[in-house]
Design a protein that fits this description.
Helix content: 25-40%
Strand order of the largest sheet: 1-2-3
Number of helices: 4
Distance between the termini: 22 Å
Order of helices and strands: HHEHEHE
Shape: globular
Number of strands: 3
Length: 80
């Protein structure tokens, strides 16, 4: 899980949903982190903010939350 949240929050959410690895405080480098994880395995990214647009576009499946910014919605698939 790549997130802009702090490490404590990232660990708590990851544990609740069964994710083994998390990269916290990654807002500025989300797009490059998704790219680094992609070889061999498709990656999905869910976001809602302008800082999420590069990662939404880089991911094999980008899902923008319907209440997010216009750029995020344009970079991913809008779900409202």
């Amino acid at each position: 899980m790549i997130t802009g949240d702090n490490a404590k929050t990232a660990r708590a959410i990851a544990a609740q949903i069964g994710i083994e690895r998390s990269l916290p405080s990654a807002s500025a480098r989300q797009g490059s982190a998704v790219k680094a994880l992609q070889p061999g395995t498709p990656r999905c990214f869910v976001g809602d903010g302008i800082n999420d647009a590069p990662a939404l576009a880089q991911a094999d499946l980008g899902i923008a939350i319907g209440t997010g910014t216009d750029i995020a919605i344009e970079a991913g698939i809008s779900c409202s």
